[in-house]
Amino acid sequence: MQIAIDGPSGAGKSTVAHCLAQHLGFIYIDTGAMYRACALKAYRSRLDLEDSSAVQTLLDQTSIEICHEQGEQVLYLDGQPVSAELRLPEISRLASDISKLPACRNKLLGLQRELAGRQNVVMDGRDIGSFVLPQADLKIFLTASAEERARRRQAQLQEQGITEDYEQILNELLYRDRQDSERKIAPLVQAPDAVLLDNSHLTQQEVIDRILLFLQQRGLLQDIGYNYHQKQKTERI
């Protein structure tokens, strides 16, 4: 089974997808981390993204692997685990730029589809339902107001000991929204058959509950032996 969760930066896709995967016993695949890994490699190499030949050469020499260790996703860049570095503000900015490049998208597309073809997955990103997994069993377009997304991102960075100005974060989110929506290849767009879910005023658990309900209404939970009503009763207790 394939569940696709798309949406703009800072909408909470990764957190929701990770928690949903844990609920269902699925594998969680964070495609955004893959693009961040490419951005990190480019950043370390001081690569000029305008130099298409250099970009292609760098990507040809880049290895990206996703493993699941003790229930958590671990991304390996050239054989080395990377995690905290992927969330640095400068890497986030560069990820938006490098994700527009055909060479980068082509490199990761095959890997993403291969991972989704091997197991039950919850995959999040910008173009999963519209491009990467167009036949996904359930597609969610998760969004929130730009102001709420900026507030959440600022709080997340503060937890990591990083101080960023709210207005700067908001402007960068709006810039990334434009970048993602206007790129020529696989732009950020709600797939025609995706369910729109605005979580500006919802808790994480409320979002999870709504997605589980969507799955229940489509009869998809029966395929994996998941008892939605029993689970809800247990969680309330």
Question: What is the structure about, briefly put?
Answer:
With 237 residues, the protein is an alpha/beta fold.
Secondary-structure topology with pairs:
Blueprint: E1 2-6, H1 13-24, E2 27-30, H2 31-44, H3 52-60, E3 64-69, E4 72-77, E5 80-82, H4 89-98, H5 102-116, E6 121-125, H6 128-132, E7 138-143, H7 146-159, H8 166-182, E8 195-198, H9 204-217, H10 228-236
Parallel strand pairs: 1-6, 1-7, 2-6, 7-8
Antiparallel strand pairs: 3-4, 4-5
Give the N-to-C terminal Cα separation.
29 Å
The total number of structural domains is 1
CATH architecture: 3-Layer(aba) Sandwich
Number of helices: 10
| CATH structural class | Alpha Beta
Mean pLDDT: 90
Strand content: 15-25%
Cα-atom radius of gyration? 18 Å
**How many β strands by DSSP?**
8
Annotated CATH topology: Rossmann fold
Following the backbone from N to C, one meets helices and strands in this order, namely EHEHHEEEHHEHEHHEHH
CATH homologous superfamily heading: P-loop containing nucleotide triphosphate hydrolases
Give a description of the structure.
- It is built from 10 helices and 8 strands.
- It is α/β, with parallel strands linked by helices.
- α2 crosses α4 (89-98) and α2 packs antiparallel against α5 (102-116).
- The chain has a single domain (2-236), classed as P-loop containing nucleotide triphosphate hydrolases (Rossmann fold), CATH 3.40.50.300.
- It has helices at residues 13-24, 31-44, 52-60, 89-98, 102-116, 128-132, 146-159, 166-182, 204-217, 228-236, and strands at 2-6, 27-30, 64-69, 72-77, 80-82, 121-125, 138-143, 195-198.
- The strands form 2 sheets. A 5-stranded parallel beta sheet has the order 2-6-1-7-8, with helices on both faces. Strands 3-4-5 form a 3-stranded antiparallel beta sheet, with helices on one face.
- Helices cover 50% and strands 16% of the residues.
